[in-house]
Amino acid sequence: MSADTEPSMRAIAREAGVGIATLYRHFPTRESLVDAVYHDQVARLTTGARELLVRLSPPAALRRWMDLFGDWIATKNGMLDTLLAMIESGDIAHAHTQAELLAAIDEILNAGRATGEIRTDVTAEDVAASLIGIFTVARPPEHAARADRLLDILMRGLGPTP
Q1: How would residue 90 be classed by pLDDT, with cut points 50, 70 and 90?
Q2: Is-above-0.85 flag for pTM?
Q3: In 3-state terms, what secondary structure has residue 11?
Q4: 5 near 80, Cβ under 8 Å?
Q5: Which among 100, 97, 74, 92 is positioned nearest to 33, based on CA atoms?
Q6: What pLDDT is attached to residue 154?
Q7: How far is CA 44 from the centre of its chain?
Q8: Has residue 92 got a pLDDT over 60?
Q9: Is 74 helix (H, G, I), strand (E, B) or coil?
Q10: Which class does domain 29-158 fall in?
Q11: Rounded CA gap, 118 and 113, in Å?
């Protein structure tokens, strides 16, 4: 998606139900808006792992977290060029974000290993690579059904080995 196909700030304001002046008062540049959205979503994913584990079994928490990750990927699609430029310039620390996301996955995997519900030989990096692959070929929301099917297949593979 090129910069001319990314949503305009006016379109973003309209979608959010605020005036353009309000949007610019809080986010004077596209980069400041992208930065805020990006960091908010990463925080939701990392805290979401802990919150899911409180309410769900580790496998159910992991599967729900995968859905949240897919939502995060979909959110980034509308700001991809700006986001990539910010990562390239160093305005967003990609390595730090990656470490946070891997730690969230690892937290759920560790809980599942402790209960015997998730394989012990799978790493957070394995899960992350699988998710990137799935969401590359089945981008939400257009291919949500295919993504769900592939995520369910991945979850079956993460179950304990006999």
Answers
A1: low
A2: no
A3: helix
A4: no
A5: 92
A6: 97
A7: 9
A8: no
A9: helix
A10: mainly alpha
A11: 5
In angstroms, how far is CA 151 from the centroid of its own chain?
Answer: 14
Which residue bears the tokens 């969230």? 104
Q: Where are the domains of the chain?
A: 29-158
Token pair 């059904």 is found at 145
Region of residue 139 (left: phi > 0; alpha: psi -120 to 50; beta: else): beta
Residue 19 has pLDDT above 70, yes or no: yes
DSSP calls for 90-154: TSS-HHHHHHHHHHHHHHHHHHHHHHT-S-SS--HHHHHHHHHHHHHHS-TTTTHHHHHHHHHHH
Tell the residue number behind the tokens 């700006």, with chain if given.
82
* pLDDT over 50 (residue 102): yes
Residue corresponding to tokens 């809980």:
111
Q: Which long-range contacts (CB under 8 A, 24 or more apart) does 30-34 make?
A: 30/6, 30/79, 30/82, 31/82, 31/86, 31/91, 33/9, 33/79, 34/79, 34/82, 34/83, 34/86
